[in-house]
Sequence to fold (223 residues):
Amino acid sequence: MDYYKVLDIPPNATQQQVRDAYKKQALKSHPDRVPSDSPERPVRTRKFQQINDAYYTLSDPSRRRDYDSARSYHGFPDPSAGDSDPEEEEIPRPDASGGGGFPWSSFGFGAKNAHEEEKFSNEQFGSVFEEMLRDEGLAEGQEAKPTGKFWSLLGGLSGGAMGFIVANFPGALAGAVAGNRLGAVRDARGKSVYSVFQELPQGDKAKLLSELAAKVFAHAIGS
Fold:
Protein backbone atom coordinates (compact mmCIF):
# COMPACT_ATOMS: atom_id res chain seq x y z
CA MET A 1 0.00 0.00 0.00
CA ASP A 2 1.44 3.38 -1.00
CA TYR A 3 0.54 5.42 2.05
CA TYR A 4 1.59 8.70 0.46
CA LYS A 5 -0.89 8.06 -2.32
CA VAL A 6 -3.58 7.21 0.22
CA LEU A 7 -3.13 10.58 1.95
CA ASP A 8 -2.57 12.39 -1.37
CA ILE A 9 0.76 13.91 -0.33
CA PRO A 10 4.32 13.82 -1.76
CA PRO A 11 7.00 11.63 -0.12
CA ASN A 12 8.79 14.75 1.17
CA ALA A 13 5.72 16.06 3.02
CA THR A 14 6.39 17.53 6.45
CA GLN A 15 4.91 15.95 9.56
CA GLN A 16 2.41 18.80 9.78
CA GLN A 17 1.38 18.18 6.17
CA VAL A 18 0.90 14.51 6.98
CA ARG A 19 -1.37 15.45 9.90
CA ASP A 20 -3.34 18.00 7.87
CA ALA A 21 -3.80 15.50 5.03
CA TYR A 22 -5.05 12.89 7.48
CA LYS A 23 -7.67 15.26 8.82
CA LYS A 24 -8.98 16.00 5.33
CA GLN A 25 -8.96 12.42 4.06
CA ALA A 26 -10.46 10.97 7.26
CA LEU A 27 -13.30 13.48 7.27
CA LYS A 28 -13.90 12.96 3.57
CA SER A 29 -14.10 9.16 3.79
CA HIS A 30 -15.52 8.58 7.28
CA PRO A 31 -18.13 5.77 7.16
CA ASP A 32 -20.54 7.76 9.33
CA ARG A 33 -21.08 10.27 6.53
CA VAL A 34 -23.47 7.75 4.97
CA PRO A 35 -26.35 5.73 6.53
CA SER A 36 -25.45 2.45 8.22
CA ASP A 37 -27.36 0.48 5.59
CA SER A 38 -25.86 2.31 2.61
CA PRO A 39 -24.14 0.10 0.01
CA GLU A 40 -21.34 2.68 0.10
CA ARG A 41 -20.60 1.92 3.75
CA PRO A 42 -18.23 -1.09 3.28
CA VAL A 43 -16.17 0.82 0.71
CA ARG A 44 -15.91 3.83 2.99
CA THR A 45 -14.97 1.63 5.95
CA ARG A 46 -12.13 0.01 4.02
CA LYS A 47 -10.91 3.38 2.75
CA PHE A 48 -11.10 4.87 6.25
CA GLN A 49 -9.00 2.01 7.62
CA GLN A 50 -6.39 2.51 4.88
CA ILE A 51 -6.21 6.21 5.72
CA ASN A 52 -5.70 5.38 9.38
CA ASP A 53 -3.02 2.81 8.58
CA ALA A 54 -1.26 5.43 6.47
CA TYR A 55 -1.39 8.04 9.21
CA TYR A 56 -0.27 5.59 11.89
CA THR A 57 2.80 4.74 9.82
CA LEU A 58 3.73 8.17 8.49
CA SER A 59 2.99 10.19 11.64
CA ASP A 60 5.78 8.46 13.58
CA PRO A 61 9.31 9.38 12.36
CA SER A 62 10.76 5.95 13.13
CA ARG A 63 7.95 4.01 11.43
CA ARG A 64 8.08 6.43 8.52
CA ARG A 65 11.83 5.89 8.01
CA ASP A 66 11.35 2.12 7.91
CA TYR A 67 8.44 2.46 5.52
CA ASP A 68 10.35 4.87 3.25
CA SER A 69 13.27 2.46 3.05
CA ALA A 70 11.00 -0.40 2.00
CA ARG A 71 9.08 1.82 -0.39
CA SER A 72 12.28 3.04 -2.05
CA TYR A 73 13.62 -0.51 -2.35
CA HIS A 74 10.52 -1.61 -4.22
CA GLY A 75 10.61 1.37 -6.55
CA PHE A 76 7.30 3.02 -5.77
CA PRO A 77 6.52 5.97 -8.09
CA ASP A 78 5.92 9.53 -6.87
CA PRO A 79 2.19 9.79 -5.92
CA SER A 80 1.95 13.05 -7.85
CA ALA A 81 3.10 11.43 -11.07
CA GLY A 82 -0.08 9.57 -11.98
CA ASP A 83 -3.65 8.62 -11.21
CA SER A 84 -3.19 4.99 -10.21
CA ASP A 85 -5.51 3.53 -7.62
CA PRO A 86 -3.82 3.21 -4.19
CA GLU A 87 -5.71 -0.02 -3.61
CA GLU A 88 -3.84 -1.54 -6.55
CA GLU A 89 -0.43 -0.43 -5.31
CA GLU A 90 0.18 -3.18 -2.81
CA ILE A 91 3.74 -3.59 -1.59
CA PRO A 92 4.93 -7.11 -2.56
CA ARG A 93 4.63 -9.58 0.29
CA PRO A 94 7.31 -12.12 1.16
CA ASP A 95 7.20 -15.41 -0.69
CA ALA A 96 4.67 -17.72 0.94
CA SER A 97 7.27 -20.49 0.79
CA GLY A 98 9.08 -18.84 3.69
CA GLY A 99 11.94 -17.30 1.74
CA GLY A 100 12.15 -14.37 4.15
CA GLY A 101 11.92 -10.71 3.30
CA PHE A 102 10.90 -7.46 4.91
CA PRO A 103 8.38 -7.71 7.80
CA TRP A 104 5.55 -5.89 6.02
CA SER A 105 3.18 -6.52 8.92
CA SER A 106 5.08 -3.84 10.85
CA PHE A 107 3.30 -1.21 8.73
CA GLY A 108 -0.15 -0.02 9.70
CA PHE A 109 -1.83 -1.18 12.88
CA GLY A 110 -1.00 -4.83 12.32
CA ALA A 111 -4.56 -5.71 13.37
CA LYS A 112 -5.43 -9.38 13.48
CA ASN A 113 -8.97 -8.96 12.17
CA ALA A 114 -11.46 -6.43 10.83
CA HIS A 115 -12.86 -5.74 14.29
CA GLU A 116 -9.44 -4.77 15.64
CA GLU A 117 -8.72 -2.65 12.59
CA GLU A 118 -11.99 -0.75 13.03
CA LYS A 119 -11.32 -0.29 16.75
CA PHE A 120 -7.83 1.13 16.17
CA SER A 121 -9.06 3.38 13.37
CA ASN A 122 -11.80 4.83 15.56
CA GLU A 123 -9.44 5.41 18.49
CA GLN A 124 -6.89 7.18 16.33
CA PHE A 125 -9.51 9.29 14.58
CA GLY A 126 -11.05 10.15 17.94
CA SER A 127 -7.83 11.78 19.12
CA VAL A 128 -7.51 13.94 16.01
CA PHE A 129 -11.26 14.64 15.97
CA GLU A 130 -10.99 16.11 19.46
CA GLU A 131 -8.00 18.22 18.38
CA MET A 132 -10.00 19.63 15.47
CA LEU A 133 -12.91 20.50 17.73
CA ARG A 134 -10.58 22.19 20.21
CA ASP A 135 -9.22 24.29 17.33
CA GLU A 136 -12.79 25.31 16.52
CA GLY A 137 -13.66 26.16 20.12
CA LEU A 138 -16.05 23.21 20.26
CA ALA A 139 -14.08 21.35 22.93
CA GLU A 140 -11.89 22.42 25.82
CA GLY A 141 -9.25 21.03 28.15
CA GLN A 142 -7.14 17.90 28.01
CA GLU A 143 -10.27 15.76 28.24
CA ALA A 144 -11.87 17.58 25.28
CA LYS A 145 -15.15 18.31 27.03
CA PRO A 146 -17.91 19.85 24.87
CA THR A 147 -18.29 23.61 25.03
CA GLY A 148 -21.46 25.65 24.71
CA LYS A 149 -20.45 26.31 21.09
CA PHE A 150 -20.45 22.55 20.41
CA TRP A 151 -23.96 22.09 21.79
CA SER A 152 -25.16 25.17 19.93
CA LEU A 153 -23.80 23.76 16.68
CA LEU A 154 -25.36 20.37 17.36
CA GLY A 155 -28.69 21.98 18.19
CA GLY A 156 -28.63 23.83 14.89
CA LEU A 157 -27.89 20.71 12.86
CA SER A 158 -30.98 18.82 13.92
CA GLY A 159 -34.31 19.56 15.51
CA GLY A 160 -33.97 16.25 17.35
CA ALA A 161 -30.70 17.20 19.00
CA MET A 162 -32.43 18.72 22.04
CA GLY A 163 -34.35 15.51 22.62
CA PHE A 164 -31.15 13.50 22.28
CA ILE A 165 -29.31 15.67 24.79
CA VAL A 166 -32.12 15.63 27.34
CA ALA A 167 -32.56 11.86 27.00
CA ASN A 168 -28.88 10.91 27.08
CA PHE A 169 -27.25 13.49 29.34
CA PRO A 170 -29.07 13.70 32.67
CA GLY A 171 -28.23 16.87 34.54
CA ALA A 172 -27.33 18.89 31.45
CA LEU A 173 -28.32 22.53 31.76
CA ALA A 174 -29.57 24.28 28.62
CA GLY A 175 -30.15 27.96 28.05
CA ALA A 176 -30.75 30.54 25.33
CA VAL A 177 -32.89 28.21 23.26
CA ALA A 178 -34.30 29.74 20.09
CA GLY A 179 -36.06 27.34 17.75
CA ASN A 180 -33.58 24.56 17.00
CA ARG A 181 -30.64 26.57 18.35
CA LEU A 182 -29.28 25.38 21.64
CA GLY A 183 -27.35 27.73 23.86
CA ALA A 184 -24.88 26.90 26.60
CA VAL A 185 -25.03 23.28 27.71
CA ARG A 186 -22.83 21.51 30.19
CA ASP A 187 -22.61 17.75 30.43
CA ALA A 188 -22.69 16.76 34.10
CA ARG A 189 -21.05 13.42 33.32
CA GLY A 190 -17.99 15.03 31.71
CA LYS A 191 -17.98 13.10 28.44
CA SER A 192 -15.47 14.04 25.74
CA VAL A 193 -16.76 15.42 22.45
CA TYR A 194 -15.81 12.19 20.67
CA SER A 195 -17.75 10.11 23.20
CA VAL A 196 -20.74 12.35 22.58
CA PHE A 197 -20.24 12.08 18.82
CA GLN A 198 -20.24 8.27 18.96
CA GLU A 199 -23.61 8.28 20.74
CA LEU A 200 -25.30 10.63 18.29
CA PRO A 201 -28.03 9.41 15.92
CA GLN A 202 -26.60 8.52 12.51
CA GLY A 203 -28.04 11.56 10.76
CA ASP A 204 -26.48 13.96 13.26
CA LYS A 205 -23.12 12.22 12.96
CA ALA A 206 -23.15 12.76 9.20
CA LYS A 207 -24.13 16.41 9.54
CA LEU A 208 -21.51 17.14 12.18
CA LEU A 209 -18.77 15.48 10.10
CA SER A 210 -19.84 17.45 7.02
CA GLU A 211 -19.82 20.68 9.01
CA LEU A 212 -16.34 19.98 10.35
CA ALA A 213 -15.08 18.88 6.94
CA ALA A 214 -16.25 22.14 5.37
CA LYS A 215 -14.21 24.08 7.92
CA VAL A 216 -11.09 21.97 7.42
CA PHE A 217 -11.32 22.01 3.62
CA ALA A 218 -11.73 25.78 3.71
CA HIS A 219 -8.61 26.10 5.91
CA ALA A 220 -10.76 27.86 8.47
CA ILE A 221 -9.67 25.94 11.58
CA GLY A 222 -9.50 28.28 14.49
CA SER A 223 -11.31 31.12 12.76
